[in-house]
Amino acid sequence: MTAESIASAGRTSFSGKSNRIRTLWLALLIVALAALCALSIGVGTREVAWTDILAALGGQVDSIGQAAVSVRVPRTLLALVAGAALGLAGALMQGVTRNPLADPGILGVNMGASLAVVVAVAWFGIASSHAYIWTAILGAGCSAVFVYIIGSLGRGGTTPLKLALAGAATSVAFSSLVIAVVLPRNDIAGGIRAWQIGGVGGATFERISHVLPFLAVGFAISLLSARKLNSLALGDELAAGLGERVAVARAVAAFGAILLCGATTAICGPIGFVGLIVPHLCRLLIGVDHRWLLPFSALSGACLLLIADIVGRIMARPAELDVGIVTALIGAPFFIWIVRRQRVREL
């Protein structure tokens, strides 16, 4: 088979949805995201009049309502960028591993970042935001490599089921280690436990500004990997026939996902299931072409995390549910449905 015929077969396999339909869904998704941002600013544990909302957006903080809105604005921004990062990371991981169950939480990447941060805080006393971020990225990377090595052992090499099992076992083991590290340290236990749930409360523009450069690099690497992921989806042999360096393509895309996961975990804590749910829903809408799937996953992830944050504020008034709890409530049944529907076959 010539390279031209392989390329033609690849183009055919990604042409299931017309660009007109994809553009329509993209426009609807952008409108939905804008509406959710407005709703996130306007809805919370405290009822706020629209006059106070408009005044707060203009920089005024003269009343309690205006002060509440001024807190919601960075929170909304953090939910937007964190959801986009997790949705995009999930699509990347599913593309790199060709595993329909791949997700930063299920594959143990988030928990690896979490363990690294907890160890660094408890044993080395790190305190700066940049130290948190670098530590989380290192932990996410080490965890991803560890899970992939474990999932590759034995007869048959790497399979979706073995990766999912290795990731689940690694997550449980790392979670236990986090508890073991935190238990003797009452001075940090409260803050670590709250962070472990995963949430966007307490966001500030300063904290977000520290993580944005890492997320920007992760987004750029990820979106530039779209064509390579399309080649990998055809199989390693066909991708190599197209001139693709398979190992390099996988490593670059995986690095982008690790940057996104590590940086997001550092600032929000480990939030699960966003990267699992979003790519599957996007494939139903726009097909499997990663040139469309990756940006759609980012926008849909932002929408999902904003919805989870809004629901968490409404469900437990006057208290709040962190987004990590809400996404787990949504994601666990979805995970079971994916297992039953996909029968853990490759993408």
From TrEMBL:
Recorded topology in the membrane: Multi-pass membrane protein
GO MF, one annotated term: transmembrane transporter activity
Cross-referenced Gene3D superfamilies: ABC transporter involved in vitamin B12 uptake, BtuC
Keywords recorded for this protein, A-Z: Cell membrane, Membrane, Transmembrane, Transmembrane helix, Transport
Transmembrane segments: 24-44, 76-93, 105-126, 132-151, 163-183, 208-226, 247-272, 292-311, 323-340
Gene Ontology CC annotation, any one: plasma membrane
Keyword Cell membrane: yes
Keyword Transport: yes
InterPro entries named among the record's database cross-references: ABC_BtuC-like, ABC_transptr_permease_BtuC
Intracellular or extracellular location(s): Cell membrane
One GO term of the biological process aspect: siderophore-iron import into cell
Primary subcellular site in the record, as a coarse category: membrane
Pfam families: FecCD
Protein family per UniProt: Belongs to the binding-protein-dependent transport system permease family. FecCD subfamily.
Protein name in UniProt: Iron complex transport system permease protein
Species of the source: Phyllobacterium leguminum
